[in-house]
Design goal:
CATH class of the largest domain: Alpha Beta
Largest sheet: 5 strands, mixed
Helix content: 55-70%
CATH superfamily of the largest domain: Histidine kinase-like ATPase, C-terminal domain
Distance between the termini: 89 Å
Structural class: alpha/beta
CATH topology of the largest domain: Heat Shock Protein 90
Oligomer: single chain
Number of strands: 12
Radius of gyration: 35 Å
CATH architecture of the largest domain: 2-Layer Sandwich
Order of helices and strands: HHHHHHHEHEEHEEHEEEHEHEHEHEH
Length: 573
Amino acid sequence: MKPFTFLYIGASGLPDPGDAGRVYLVNAMCLITAFSILVIGGMLSYYFHWRLSLLIPFTVEFIVNASVLYFNARRRYKTAAAILYFLQCVMIVYLSAIIGPVLRLDIVLVLLFAVIYLIFKDKRWRRAGAIAAFLDFIVIEALYYKNPFQAPIHLERGAAYVLQLLVVVVITALIVLVSAPYVRSNDTNEDLKRANHLIKIFVAQITHELRTPLDTIHHVTQLLRSETKKDPALKKIEPLVDIGWTVSSTARNIVNNVLDMAQIEAGKMTATVYEAFRLRPFLEHIIDVHRVIAQNVKMWLELTIDREMPAVIFGDPLNINQILTNLLANAFKYGYSEHPVLVEVCKQLDTWEIRVSNNSEGIPREQLDSIFDPFVTTGNGHIQGSGLGLYIVRTKVSMMGGSVRVESQRLGRTTFSVLLPLREGKFKDIPDGAGVDLEAADFEKVNVLVAEDDKLISYLIARFLEEMGCAYTLVSNGRELLEVAEKKCREECPDIIILDCHMPELNGLETIRLLKQHPTLKNVPIIVTTGDIYSPTLDNMLSAGANTYLKKPIDHNALRKTIQLYLRKLPQN
């Protein structure tokens, strides 16, 4: 059982320790105030011969002050705190007017300013408290200068000394009470910092460890989906494969959001990279990927693109992809089944807008201002989330100079709108080969050299390259890659090099530098694969001469398109 249980009146059952601490503090200040009224008020009334101008106010103050415990017990915490605080503001001015500088109550104002942030949680109440304390200060100083209300004072020196001593004791008790939370917080601050640091390391390590098997699962489900589409005998298991692919995609998105959150907190987010891309194929690819997810939750996706939108725009495709992915994941998670999820893209003067909307229970009005904060969800006990997706959306949109907002109706339509700067591009701005039809490429003439130290990932990449019809060679590190590439160049150089960032013996950065020094290999396109797109290593590899990168787990369509984009013009038979 807690000591001084009566100080916890109304605090039991509060889930937030901060709220419970405020209730405890209000109760404790209420009791100290009651003690000062009885002792100091009683002595003043006695010395002034029980004058009604003192006796009645002290009696009323004692009764009203006692109501603080009553309101806390009824869980009306704001009322209790307001009564405690503003009652003292009124009594300080009244006593200063009646008995003048006998008690020097202006020093109590320091405490009034100090307790504002401890007993009030709401900003409006804090502002009101600060204004009241400041007005008290002005009135008291004016009364000390000229006071028409002050009664004649006839106090012996000893009595005045005792009263001043009691005031100092009460103020000291209040100071100790108010400062105790700060002292305890300072004592535990270093431990909290260390614990927070260890938690961040733990989360980052776990998510990195989780991402490797998730990447492998995603590779496998992509291959299985491809096999089921080609082989009619496998149609029976196609729904199960789609479910596996959906679950792995969702899990990967959660892990990526956690890692993005860690990068944001560490201040290591990379700068926005603008490049020209065709808007419609880009969006249609994202929608096609998510149509499988929509089907599994009994929804369907509809994409509408304004005719006024340019065919080619400049933007950061990676960030836009993740923004749209998180908004769609949110729409699927909270939307009603058997209803559509709408994606609308439209032009607005010098900006363009992406709107994602669904039919749902709606977001409570009180949560609209905090929905983009980290770890905030609208879960109702049956549907929960990590609370990171919308925070990542807001951060990435802000990085690109845009804004995001939400509109929600109760049991109706909820719409998230992303507004981004519009910079129109031309087809000539797109790198050569980006507009080639995927089906028209002859991958049987493509010779790919792959350096990947993870045997399982290497095997899965090989399976996909084989499915495409590419000729390929696998090595496990940069040194082997250089040796194999030099041997191949005696007959026919590789057309594409796929290179992992982190490898034993010779890492990706050093390998690229040596490749660029080779007279024959320096022009071979290099595709970097990495699980951490924010590391400085990736920027260094691109600066050293890598043409582009693919984020692990490698999306097979993205790999196909990237190989096609950087193919050398091969002689036709």
